[in-house]
Amino acid sequence: MSEPDGSPSVLEPYMGMLSHAAVLRDDGSLFVHLHPAGSINLTAQRRFTEVEADGTGAGAGGAAEHQEPGHTATPPTNTVTFPFVFPEPGAYRIVVQVKPGAEVETAAFDVDIGEEPSS
Ligand SMILES: [Cu+2]
Questions:
Q1: Which residues of 58-95 are buried (b: 16+ CB within 10 A; e: fewer)?
Q2: 92, 89, 74, 76: which is closest to 35 by C-alpha?
Q3: Which comes out higher in pLDDT, residue 13 or 55?
Q4: Which of 14, 29, 88, 115 is the most interior residue, by most CB within 10 Å?
């Protein structure tokens, strides 16, 4: 996220988290509330961490592994990422809230998750 002059916004935590997001499926069969560090259940969190660990091995990937949401000092950032695995193909809406200043801002993104390519 950026300021009008192009400089990176500094996101402020609110309600204890740097950002809040929701993932909804168009047929109403799924609603998940997410936080950047993951407020999802431990199994999903672990799965994500494993995926990350087995995957591209992005540098200091393991560092965030055992951080507890809301109990760690968050360095200033204008980027948030959410651990989430779409359970199945379909049309989803992702709603993300951040607080780059005094006001909370909300954005919605519609995504179509296709079938996994069969190998
Ligand atoms: Cu939240």
A1: eeeeeeeeeeeeeeeebeeeeebebbbeeeeeeebebe
A2: 74
A3: 13
A4: 14
Strand partners, 93: 24, 110
Between the alpha carbon of residue 115 and those of residues 76, 83, 84, 96, the distances in Å are 37, 20, 17, 24
Q: Which has the minimum average pLDDT: 15-19, 22-26, 37-41, 97-101?
A: 37-41
Distance 16 CA to ligand 1 centre (A): 8
Query: Which tokens is 27 given?
Result: 């047929």
Which ranges of the chain does DSSP label H, i.e. alpha helix? 42-54
Model-wide pTM > 0.85: no
Query: From ligand 1's centre to the CA of 17, what distance in Å?
Result: 7
User: Which tokens is 114 given?
Assistant: 């296709």
CA of 113 to the centre of ligand 1 (A): 23
- List pLDDT tens digits, range 59-112: 444 444 444 555 555 567 888 999 899 999 999 999 999 999 899 999 999 999
